[in-house]
Amino acid sequence: MSVLEVSHIYKKYGHGADVLQDVSFTMEKKQCLGLVGESGCGKSTLARCLLHIEPIDQGSILFENTPLHNKSQRSLRPYRRHIQAVLQNPSAALNPKLKIIDSLLDPYRQFGGQAKLNHFHYTSARNFASQLLEAVELPASLAERYPHELSGGQKQRVTIARAISIEPAILILDEPTSSLDVLSQASVLRLLNGLREQLGTSYLFISHDLSGVYAMSQRIMVMQGGKIVDHFEKEELLASDRHPYTQELIAMFE
């Protein structure tokens, strides 16, 4: 069953060329859909459009059969809790003036405590923060620290904890490990895989790195020049009919 359906969307900036051209795909519940492509191909623009940070110029975006592309920012508010994101720079994502506990509670507070949670339970701010930190394998003591007191890997785990705090249906992961060292990358990918299985969240995992996408995803899309040029099940990666650009990425992967 699909949780998100994207149909024939286009996006351009000003009078330039289309950054996204006729992009269509579906996201299935509890699965990870990978999106791979070189820098500048439109991956992050697509993420911003799905998060409704950027409007699309044409096409449609349906969340559980509800059209989102034609809603005002105000009418989108009830749906924002269902689509959250983890981006590549955790330092930029965390307010340096806020303690970790306040950053973790921000999404819950934004939605007025209306979020119905199945895996986390709000009994107090401290207890809720402890549950979230435990979920991402961090000690509860970090709740009282500030972002500058944490390592890069710890900060990214905090942003993951914040993103899952209201148990979204969809988590958009835009290069979530690109700023981390190799050991931290592997650890965070393992964590994300475990959280998807535990929470039943659907992922869109965006990266320029085919190996990371392959490790995370059940289905893979390849983007080139703003277009989806290939889309296949993970097991079909080495099939003979792969797009020439996909074959170039495989050659680098091997």
From TrEMBL:
SMART domains: AAA. This is Peptide/nickel transport system ATP-binding protein. One of its GO terms (molecular function) is ATP hydrolysis activity. PANTHER family: D,D-DIPEPTIDE TRANSPORT ATP-BINDING PROTEIN DDPF-RELATED, TRANSPORT ATP-BINDING PROTEIN. It comes from the Bacteria. It comes from Paenibacillus phyllosphaerae. Belongs to the ABC transporter superfamily. SUPFAM superfamilies: P-loop containing nucleoside triphosphate hydrolases. Residues 4-250 form the ABC transporter domain. It holds the Pfam family ABC_tran. Keywords: ATP-binding, Nucleotide-binding, Transport. GO terms for biological process: transmembrane transport.
